[in-house]
Amino acid sequence: MKNLFRNRQILIFLYSIILLTALTTILCFFIWITPSNFSYIYNHPFDSYNSTLGFNHIYCINLPFRSDRQEKITKIAKFHNLDIDFIDAINFEDEKTLKNYLSDPIVSPRHKACYASHYRTYELVVSNNYQSALILEDDIDFEVDIKDFLNIVQPFLPDDWEMFYLGNCGVDTSNTIYYHGKVYGTDFVLAKSFSPACTHAYAVSLRGAQNLLKILVNISKPVDLALIDLIHTDKIFSLSLLPSIISQWKSYDNPSDVSPGTQGKLYNLKNSTLELVGYRRVS
């Protein structure tokens, strides 16, 4: 009887060891087949559902007299429960302020003012010691499900990212892919930036803002093209999300302040926030 009891204990012990080994093997297997998921998720504590879309701060560059645009951004912020900090854009007629920013004489006053406004925003990021900040221009529209999209994509940003385009005016793809998958039926790609035209919606890390303050100086072309040059020469590490989840709101009753009289190509969102809250484009 004692031998039977002892044999039963030995069998239970052996089964426990086998079960523990099997569970450990299964766990290691899943970690092995999805290493990027685990490492990125634990290294990047983004909260995409908070009031700043997972970044430390959101800035919107806005000319004070464009109250029509500020009204649209305010409605976007209310719809998505966001805290957006409006900062005054530099007017192209403000020659005194523009003298503080070096650029080639071939750069028009309007483009120089755009550049100076972005440069001053980098200064704010650094002076406030924000680890990341989303920089918006005031002629934009948000994807309705932007928080859901960012919640899936943001964890895949590498530790050393410096810029992150949430929207641009081109098909900006490269062969260096960090995420590729379907979100609500839409095929999304997070990749190293190639030629992300326009500057209406991008984030910078603290390191990125510090770097831009050093290298984005004395420009000889519009700021979005100057940034592309830095990306092409690997002086700044930038990523882009495609398709865009923030696009420019192009309408004939919303003229460009930088390039008056131009309309440009229209990049539609899957679900427009501005259209949902009642705005319509004038064509």
Automatic annotation (TrEMBL):
<feature type="transmembrane region" description="Helical">
    <location>
        <begin position="12"/>
        <end position="33"/>
    </location>
</feature>
<dbReference type="Pfam" id="PF01755">
    <property type="entry name" value="Glyco_transf_25"/>
</dbReference>
<keyword id="KW-0472">Membrane</keyword>
<dbReference type="InterPro" id="IPR002654">
    <property type="entry name" value="Glyco_trans_25"/>
</dbReference>
<protein>
    <recommendedName>
        <fullName>Glycosyl transferase family 25 domain-containing protein</fullName>
    </recommendedName>
</protein>
<feature type="domain" description="Glycosyl transferase family 25">
    <location>
        <begin position="56"/>
        <end position="225"/>
    </location>
</feature>
<keyword id="KW-0812">Transmembrane</keyword>
<keyword id="KW-1133">Transmembrane helix</keyword>
